[in-house]
Design goal:
By secondary structure, the protein is α/β, with parallel strands linked by helices. Helix content is about 30%, strand content about 20%. The protein folds into two domains: about 210 residues, FAD/NAD(P)-binding domain (3-Layer(bba) Sandwich), CATH 3.50.50.60; about 110 residues, FAD/NAD(P)-binding domain (3-Layer(bba) Sandwich), CATH 3.50.50. The strands form four sheets. Strands 1, 2, 3, 4, 5, 6 and 16 form a seven-stranded mixed sheet that branches. β9, α5 and β10 form a beta-alpha-beta unit.
Length: about 375
């Protein structure tokens, strides 16, 4: 097994991990970024072909480098992927791609990360794998008839993956709505799930711009864990589904999308709805979201819900361990592009302070024995 010792290991080479690397590099602190993908930006590159960001280009950039698009345009997933790859190259962030960390533990006072046949030992670890790592599907998905094509929205690329016949999209949030409009051009589409709220103005319009700035300010400056008001508002916002952004109810109606109730199970190999109907469809796409995955972290730093106990990304009970890119890590914008820079800067500053403190310890010991 090959061993590497490094001051700081960043796990995850997405926006959060790259931004953490940028701020550590500015402080001339040594680090390595480990990313499971084969190329920087693959987390975006491997999404569906027509995907575009919801956030305007001006607010989607990382610190130190602009995204070379009109400020109020919306990058495609490939433009964002290529931007991240160029960002890592321009700032020489030393991403080691194709390295999947299997385990994080502590041994002899140091963090130990196992990645296949490689072993990394570090004083600090920044977990930047994000809040949306593992696709979620209901347990009963495996009961669908094998003749029905099914997969999670994370595996969808284009309509060519589907067979002839009706398509059921399970989950009426933003992914479900966007895919419904795309697929209705070639298939009859049914969208399962209750109607949810939506932004009050057309996405990308002139009226959208001041509203976006206000929402960004509130999510970045007001709804924070450090204030009572922020915690109360955050809890309320997190309890509700995200509103529809680009594709809204009237767009679905205009496209002829058929709305149906929630899918509650499987009957005779087919999806069953909460109103008792059983659907005879040829394709099912689960637009049912993602969950975090910390199963590989063997440290007692999680609460009863499985969330890390942290303050602005700093795990106080395990000095040297940090988290970035999680939902409501510090503010409501912490898992979004406009919010990750502030969190990463704070973590980098904390690591620098910790390293300075550790550097002073030997001289104090020497004075004590003199």
């Amino acid at each position: 097994m090959r061993r590497t010792r490094v001051e700081t290991v960043i796990v995850g080479g997405g926006q959060a991990g790259l931004t953490a690397g940028y701020y550590l590099a500015k402080r001339a602190l040594p680090f390595v970024i480990l990313d499971a993908n084969e190329r920087v930006g693959d987390a975006w590159r491997n999404r569906w072909d027509s995907l575009r960001l919801f956030t305007p280009a001006h607010f989607s950039r990382l610190p130190g480098k602009r995204l070379d698009l009109p400020n109020w345009s919306f990058a495609t997933k490939d433009e964002m992927a290529d931007y991240l790859e160029a960002y890592a190259r321009e700032f020489d962030l030393g991403v080691r791609s194709g390295v999947r960390v299997d385990r994080l533990e502590k041994a002899d006072g140091r963090f130990v990360l196992s990645a296949g046949e490689e072993r990394y030992e570090a004083e600090n670890v920044v977990v930047a794998t994000g809040a949306h790592e593992l696709p979620k599907t209901p347990a009963f998905a495996g009961e669908l008839d094998a003749r029905i094509v099914q997969f999670h929205s994370s595996a969808y690329r284009n309509p060519g993956q589907l067979q002839e016949g009706d398509v059921l999209l399970v989950g009426a949030g933003n992914s479900g709505a966007e895919l419904a409009v795309e697929l209705q051009r070639s298939h009859r589409v049914l969208l399962a799930g209750p109607k949810i709220s939506e932004i009050p103005v057309p996405h990308g319009s002139l009226r959208f711009r001041p509203g976006f700035r206000v929402f960004r300010f509130i999510g970045h400056r007001v709804v924070k864990r450090s204030t009572r008001l922020g915690r109360r508002l955050g809890a309320k916002l997190l309890s509700e589904p995200d509103p529809l952004i680009r594709t809204r109810s009237k767009d679905l109606a205009a496209a002829g999308i058929e709305r149906v109730p929630r899918v509650t199970g499987i009957a005779d190999g087919r999806p069953a709805l909460e109103d008792g109907r059983v659907l005879d469809v040829a394709n099912v796409i689960w637009c049912t979201g993602y969950r975090t995955n910390f199963d590989w972290i063997d440290l007692p730093v999680f609460d009863e819900t499985g969330a890390p106990r942290q303050d602005r990304g700093v795990v106080l009970s395990e000095p040297g361990l940090y988290f970035l890119g999680l939902v409501f890590l510090h503010s409501f914008s912490s898992d979004a592009l406009p919010g990750r820079g502030r969190d990463a800067a704070y973590v980098a500053k904390h690591i620098a302070s910790r390293q300075r403190h550790q550097a002073k310890e030997p001289s104090r010991a020497a004075l004590a024995t003199a």
